[in-house]
Amino acid sequence: MPIKKLEFRKNGTWLEIEVPCRAPEDYAGVIELTPEGELDIDATPAVIPGSRNLISTELASSVSNTSITRTGWMENYGEWKNKGMTMMNQSSMTTWAIEFPAPGYYDINLEYRSGDRHEWRVTVDGCQSIEHSCGASGIFSLHPLGWVRIDAPGIQEIDVQVLTGPEDDAELSGLYIDPVML
């Protein structure tokens, strides 16, 4: 199998690799990276432009009055699913440090399950917040909260809290962040 070099470029702290739109072979291809020198890898979760981004609770930078645990269940036909999650109540908070590549608007959705309705607050860097009351389901599902505006690229702190609802009823598994194209 011939080895093909891929085009790449550095864009700020990001390494962008141009991969082919279509696989060059019928079987699964492999991309091997061979760095020259030491690598300095930042493990901060990042929003990928033009893509739906799930930031799992397992990537949270901190949690207060709760803990990150794993839950599992069996779906139809014996398929096992599992997720990391935090049990949320009015005194708990889950916080992520997330890198945003560009200023703009971002759509925020929470993935959680619950037996009852809850009101949620998402705060960006301690000042900009959105609040929304969402219905619930016994399965993990997405619940839209609204848009936030990011003024500059870089790492932003995102806090998620439950404002109202039954105690220890909401299991938060992640945060979806979608860039909004205006």
Write the layout of secondary structure elements.
Elements lengths: L7 E4 L2 E4 L35 E4 L5 E3 L3 E7 L5 E9 L4 E8 L3 E10 L4 E7 L3 E7 L6 E10 L3 E11 L5 E10 L3
Antiparallel strand pairs: 1-2, 3-13, 4-7, 5-6, 6-13, 7-12, 8-11, 8-13, 9-10, 9-12
Report what the structure shows.
The strands form three sheets. Strands 3, 5, 6, 8, 11 and 13 form a six-stranded antiparallel beta sheet that branches. The chain is built from no helices and 13 strands. 0% of the residues lie in helices and 52% in strands. The chain has 182 residues and is mainly beta. Strand 1 and strand 2 (14-17) form a beta hairpin. The relative contact order is 0.22. The protein has strands spanning 8-11, 14-17, 53-56, 62-64, 68-74, 80-88, 93-100, 104-113, 118-124, 128-134, 141-150, 154-164, 170-179.
Short description:
With 182 residues, the protein is mainly β. The chain has no helices and 13 strands. It starts with 7 loop residues before the first strand and ends with a strand.
